[in-house]
Design brief:
Shape: globular
Distance between the termini: 23 Å
Mean pLDDT: 87
Order of helices and strands: HHEEEEHEHHEEEEH
Radius of gyration: 17 Å
Strand order of the largest sheet: 3-4-5-9-8-7-6
Low-confidence stretches: 12-20
Largest sheet: 7 strands, antiparallel
Helix content: 10-25%
Number of helices: 6
Strand content: 35-45%
Structural class: alpha+beta
Length: about 210
């Protein structure tokens, strides 16, 4: 309960409209109706021991691709919103400690902008911290062709580096292939939930 109250306080501090926070999944989260997932021991975690909470009504599934540890899908897997935990090993010797000053430079908005996938459209970027580590928030929109259908998505990624592994919490809202895209309002309505999920991240080994 204490952590939930802290998240609600942070929502107000960051000027999110709590009317948006009353969307069903966000309200679930605020009410404490969520499940905690741990990457501990997961073969795709690259050694990262991390916990994160997600709404109970969402479906958690193993990611099909090598770097996707887990995915959380809205409306029991039937919705158009998805959150991915993505890990990527950095080409650094084991045990390397990246100085905080370098991490801060890496997550500067102008550097984050360089991470936008090819063909995607940059929306916004900002520096932040996750579990007291320098981190970044990157937002972009993209158009993808899949199985003969065109899918439009808007993505907000929370990115940090722990040890020699880059971790992304990639949160996306998408359109139905038959729908004319108007994703900005939907992304705004889901940002409070994505924000709360990102702020539920805990790295237990960091505090030993």
């Amino acid at each position: 309960m204490k952590r939930t109250l802290t998240l609600v306080f942070l929502l107000a501090l960051f000027h999110y409209n709590l009317v948006f926070a009353a969307t069903p999944a966000a309200k679930e989260f605020i009410d404490g109706n969520y499940i905690q997932f741990s990457t501990s021991g997961h073969p795709k975690s690259k050694g990262i021991n991390m916990t994160i909470s997600y709404p109970r009504s969402w479906l958690a599934k193993e990611g099909e691709r090598p770097n996707i540890v887990q995915k959380f899908h809205s409306d029991g897997g039937q919705g158009s919103e998805i959150v991915l935990i993505i890990t990527k090993s950095l080409p650094l010797p084991p045990g390397t400690v990246v100085p905080e000053s370098e991490l801060q430079e890496f997550f500067a908005p102008n550097e984050l902008k360089k991470m936008v996938p090819q063909g995607a459209v940059f929306v916004d970027a900002e520096s932040t911290k996750i579990e007291s580590l320098p981190a970044g928030i990157l937002e972009y929109s993209m158009r993808q062709e899949r199985a003969g259908a065109t899918i439009y998505s808007q993505v907000i990624s929370y990115i940090f580096i722990y040890g020699t592994t880059m971790v992304q919490l990639q949160c996306a809202v998408s359109t139905d292939p038959m729908t004319v895209p108007n994703l900005a309002p939907r992304m705004e309505s889901f940002k409070p939930l994505f924000f709360m999920m990102a702020n539920s991240i805990v790295l237990p080994d960091k505090w030993k």
